[in-house]
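Q: I'm writing up a methods section and want to include an example of the input and output format. Could you take the sequence below and give the corresponding predicted structure tokens, formatted cleanly so I can copy it straight into the document?
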Amino acid sequence: AFDYEGEGPEVAVAVVAQETLDQAEDFAVARDFRPVSFVAIPPDGAFTGEPMFGQTRQAPAVLGRGKRLERDSAPIVVLGAEPDADAATVAPEAAAEGDIPEAGFQGRVRGAG
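A: Here is the clean output for your methods example:
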């Protein structure tokens, strides 16, 4: 899945594998969450809005058939103190079991002309 903004010789592109989105949704649903869409928090200045990768497979059941989400025009802002680096460490056994979906962000891409 991908999202982009801009036009001309410089365009911001955000890309994530569909398999990663599927794993993230499965992870959330297995823990009794009801996710409806996928968005990203890009590095500062990499995207002016919120990169949106579409709705989840279960979104129609949660939102109602025929209803769609609208993208936020502003990027996500995380409030509060910076997390402790040690608290953000994932236990190696959890990562080895595949419980932690990986995600990435691709910043600006310059065109040939």
